[in-house]
Amino acid sequence: MKIILLGPPGAGKGTQAKFISEKYFIPHISTGDIFRKNISEKTPLGIEAKKYLDEGKLVPDEVTINIMKNRLGMDDCKNGFLLDGFPRTVTQAKALDLFLNGIDQQIDKVLLIDVPKGLIFDRMTGRRVCPSCGASYHIKFNPPKIEGKCDVCNSDIVQRKDDTQSTVKDRLDVYDKQTEPLIGYYKSQGVLSIVNGTGEINEVFQNVKNILKDIHR
Ligand code: ADP
Ligand code: ADP
Ligand code: ZN
């Protein structure tokens, strides 16, 4: 099963991705997580990407596409994958299609997590993440069992630098301008499904499963 999760920042892509990846045994591939890991390890990619992430801008297509081609060529992607945060531009989507065509594969489903703008802002500014294992929480909607500590690995959870008010606004603008055109792109390919993302985390996952149950591997 080859799935793309689409939706504005803060829609709940990463949260749903974790559940989908566990239920359907496909790797969860998040470009944001890959960039953040490289930034914390101060690799050359991390040093290059940091300036874009800090400002809420997109990392250049060429850099992002190369990383994803490498990642999708790995063994664990042979039976499918779940993309979270990629593609984010039409150029990236076309490059992905070209890459998959080359290995005689195609995307099965693009899930657009649909959440009104009014909810997004609260979701993003209340988000807290674990810098060690990447787990994501929300101070109100999905708090960890012990305040301030990751349930999985007990590290101190933190606010992402780009989840503060001013950068959030810039990221939503970037989504509207650069990523939203992908909705039309995938609609015309007949692979787009819209997931109601407004309910609680479990309800949204139920909506996702209802859509995915018709897909064969
Ligand atoms: P969110 O979960 O809020 O949607 P991500 O973790 O997916 O955020 O992305 C964080 C940042 O990483 C983006 O603001 C951007 O700078 C960079 N990034 C992630 N994915 C891509 C991509 N496909 N193309 C370019 N930049 C990306
Ligand atoms: P994305 O990957 O799309 O940027 P996340 O999955 O990180 O979004 O979710 C953003 C924030 O909203 C997180 O703090 C997360 O815990 C919270 N969240 C996710 N889904 C829901 C939901 N259905 N209801 C309330 N809060 C949610
Ligand atoms: Zn953790």
UniProtKB/TrEMBL annotation:
Give the Pfam families listed for this entry: ADK (PF00406), ADK_lid (PF05191)
CDD domains membership: ADK
Binding of ATP, residues: 10-15, 127, 136-137, 199
The protein's UniProt keywords, in alphabetical order, are:
ATP-binding, Cytoplasm, Kinase, Metal-binding, Nucleotide biosynthesis, Nucleotide-binding, Transferase, Zinc
Region LID, as annotated, extends over 126-163
Compartmental location: Cytoplasm
Q: Which GO molecular function annotations are given, in alphabetical order?
A: AMP kinase activity
**Enzyme Commission no:** 2.7.4.3
Q: Which residues bind AMP?
A: 31, 36, 57-59, 85-88, 92, 160, 171
- What family is it from? Belongs to the adenylate kinase family.
The subunit field of the Swiss-Prot or TrEMBL record says: Monomer.
Q: What does this protein do?
A: Catalyzes the reversible transfer of the terminal phosphate group between ATP and AMP. Plays an important role in cellular energy homeostasis and in adenine nucleotide metabolism.
Q: What is this protein called?
A: Adenylate kinase
Species name for this entry? Clostridium moutaii
Lineage, broadest ranks: Bacteria, Bacillati, Bacillota, Clostridia, Eubacteriales
